[in-house]
Task: structure prediction
Amino acid sequence: MNYVIGKDYIEIFGKEDFDIKEILECGQVFSYKFMGDCYLAYSADKKAKVTETSLGYIIKTNHPNYFENYFDLKTDYGKIKETLSKFPILKKPIDFGKGIRILKQNLFETLISFIVSANNNIKRIQMILERLREKLGSKVGDFYAFPTREQLKGASVEFFKEIGAGYRADYLYKVVRQIDDNTLNEWQKLDTKDLRNKLISLSGIGPKVADCVLLFGYGRQDVFPVDTWIEKMYVKFYCSNSQIVPNREKIRENLVKEFGNLSGYAQQYLFYSMRSREV
DNA sequence: TTCCAGGTGCATA
DNA sequence: TATGCACATGGA
Result:
């Protein structure tokens, strides 16, 4: 996929490895808006407007270098899809979500977002996160930035309940007090296993949320988040009728063993097609 | 009305 | 180590 970067834009040529609807709506990210003729993508304190063109896409933003990384434009998804298509169960999911790219999201925002995501549905997750932005975030031009750790630290448990976080309010209140502004960045140097254990030690973060933060925040691909949809997928494709369904930890182990360093990509194709009832 | 959603924390054996 | 249950909330 070719693209050029200007002072306030990125132009993408070709659509086979980049579909903005699939990228934003495949469940990896919650802070975006569909505007009818374009998508607005929000990440931390930055915004991009993505519009389809006859040749591909035009991304308008004041931070083109940031969004070049955010949309993972340097990675060759054609090659990844070619490799993964050799797995029979991935053929349809890859065809269904062939324009997906795994975003490289802001660490802190990813952490908070996926704590909110636990046992929740995507529409409500988006609503809660939007309220967080509007009530605690700094105004940047015509939108609100995702609140910083300091800004979240100023909020009470009651506040988190008021915006609809439910029982996750306690998790949010605690987690912003368990880390400081450098913690998440310092953990970059750890290997996936140690980093995962650090994340799980935080409030509101278990195995699944940790894997999502590893994949969407830290860009680790050797993880396979197992949620209710992946569990359904596993039952459908890996368990015969009479077979007992293994627990999620065992499912995760088996899938990481199978897909190795491409686990993260495989997971997202499968998740998207399962949730869309397209497998 | 009941079930479900990108699960986690905690008690119990 | 493994299993079971409670936990808010809103849409289907």
